[in-house]
Amino acid sequence: MSFVRTARHEASILLIAAIPLLAPAASRAQDPTVPSPIRDALAAVDLAPERLRLDLLDMSLWGGDRWKLPLFDALTQRPLRIPGDVEILQRQLLRAAERPGDIYMAATSRLGTGVRRGLIGDPAEELRASLPERDPLPAALRALWKSARKPMIPEDEELIRSAAAQLPDSLDLALAIWVTAAARAIDARHAAFASLGPNAEASLQRDAIAYLLGTAADAQDPASQRRLEERAGAIDQAVWNAGISDLLIAVERTLPIVRRHSAGMGRSWRVATPCGPIVLAGEGPDRHGPESPLILIDAGGDDWYAGGGAGTHETPVSILIDLQGNDRYLAADTLGPAFGAGVAGVGLLIDLAGDDAYRGGHLCMGAGLCGAGVLIDGAGEDRYDALTASQGAGLFGVGILSDLAGRDSYRAFQQSQGYGYVRGAGVLVDRSGDDIYEADDQRIRYPAAQTEEHNASLSQGFGFGKRADFVDGRSLAGGLGVLADGEGDDTYRCGVFGQGCGYWYGIGILADQSGNDSYEGIWYVQGSGAHFALGVLWDTAGEDRYRATMNMAQGAGHDFSLGFLYEGAGDDRYDAPNLSLGGGNANGIGIFWDLTGDDTYSVTAATSLGRANTDSRGGLRDRIDTIGLFLDTGGRDAYPTEKAFAGDGRLWTQPGLNEAIPLDAERGAGVDTTWTPGAERRWRGVGNR
């Protein structure tokens, strides 16, 4: 420990340092690409900007994982890029909200298994060019039979030719493109699952659902669980992603043709295939059963669905398109996939218009488990209700829910609303509307380890991994969970773990573009991370209210985690617990930054407003940085009287809680000043367009 650092800590034993804000001479000589408020705060605790990061070498002493996402390293090594990178991701998702292929590729690229279909050439056009001009649908169906590895008998071919002759030529072609894309996706699945052995899809689906639901997990011995994890991890995800991407792009590009012919679907049309039927329904109110056809297109009416849009080992691809009407999607089987879900398959549901209601159990409404599930809702005031693994949930796969417009409500219990598990990405995109996002914390169904009075939500932008360092050491790095909301006054409510949070190498991001929003949570919420993780909450505009009641929130990092809350503009209020508002704990990093606005801070707990604490003494952790950083860079702000050191125009430092044995590695600082991003043109981060 240097003499300078020792003297600073000895002075801090008596009182918390609080001085009028003056930029130290040393900081002015530092890297001009770092915003001056951050430069000043770091200089106050003798920390160079390049030290503001999680040290991967130190972390590796406590374990790592082969499936750690490249994105995790990229962001935790350059935290000051996080707000800008999240802004790019949110903008990309909102622009692509009606394009499932683009959302899918955005998600998989950040998993490190992405492909760039369409970079050269158009997959939909290539599929069209592969078909004959005459009788394209029969030709496509012959290819489907081949991909399904079943022989087509002459009677089947004759029925298909007769049925295809009843369709308008352009609709016949559109369906042929979809069928061809489905056949190629099935071929891609065969190739991606080849290393798992013959007929792997059925057993993988069964074991994966049991693993997810927990119904058999307690009865499974660790060796059985590991076998499932190894099999799921052995899927060649890049090959699988290519087939899925082409399918999603093909449906998106040819959907306008289907819409033009919707008026001509006056009567039902159906043809059988080895991968499920192809069904066309008219504009009247229809009741559809629990089956998941290969393709189901409903032209209109207020319809009821008991299932559909679920890709499984039996129906590898299922596409459900509803063109208009106030529809009800009520899953008959709450344990199986439905309504834009893929379990070892691909499920796609697109509902273009109407006030719709979706209700299911597990694995629904944009859920991918060893596959891909996508739900796109075009317009209307919609209601989404589920239990777990829903509303944008990816587990060894990708799940996407995208809602383009309307005042919507999303309700679930757990693993939902932007949830990513191991080798998975879950994305929820809502472009506009005053929306409600609720991970139910009133009915205790999944009590949290931290407090049994609240549910473990694992929702609303949450990345989750399997921690096993205290069991058998076979931990698995978490995935990516993203909730991206555009315009509207939104409400977010959850229990423990949510609202931009990560656990065990998981990455959780909640990004809200504008509106007067309300965030309510309990513990590990609102831009926080626990145990080798990254959590980000990014809100750029509006008069927002943040409330967390128990611990670890609003820019807090615990145990080699980084938590970041970035608030762009508006007169905001923060009701904060312990370890919050730039709180770092146990070699974690907590960063809180409110860019501008007249803000109110309500907090009495010790580890807050830029404070770092390392509980241990006498071990390796004593030598590894723990950082708490608080920044408010605009407006007239109100701080609690108990925190007299904090105020407008001040820079302060805080020691760790154990002031009798101070640690050089405990570095906590806060700054309240006025700063204009545009004044520092060389910085390409927050606030620059």
Q: Let me know the number of strands.
A: 46
Give the CA-based shape: elongated
- Average pLDDT confidence is 90
Largest sheet: 17 strands, mixed
Percent of residues in helical segments? 10-25%
User: Structural class of the secondary structure composition?
Assistant: alpha/beta
Beta-strand content: 25-35%
Number of helices: 14
> Rg from C-alpha positions?
26 Å
Low-confidence stretches: 1-29, 681-689
Our count of domains comes out at: 2
Any descriptors?
689 residues; alpha/beta; 2 domains; 15-stranded parallel sheet; 14 helices; 46 strands; elongated; disordered N terminus; disordered C terminus
Report on the structure:
With 689 residues, the chain is of the alpha/beta class. The chain has 2 domains: 367 residues, no CATH class; 294 residues, no CATH class. It has 14 helices and 46 strands. The strands form 4 sheets. The chain has a 17-stranded mixed β-sheet. The chain has a 15-stranded parallel β-sheet that branches. The protein has an 11-stranded parallel β-sheet with strand order 7-10-14-18-22-26-30-33-36-40-43. Strand 2 and strand 3 form a beta hairpin. The two termini are 42 Å apart. The N terminus and C terminus are likely disordered.
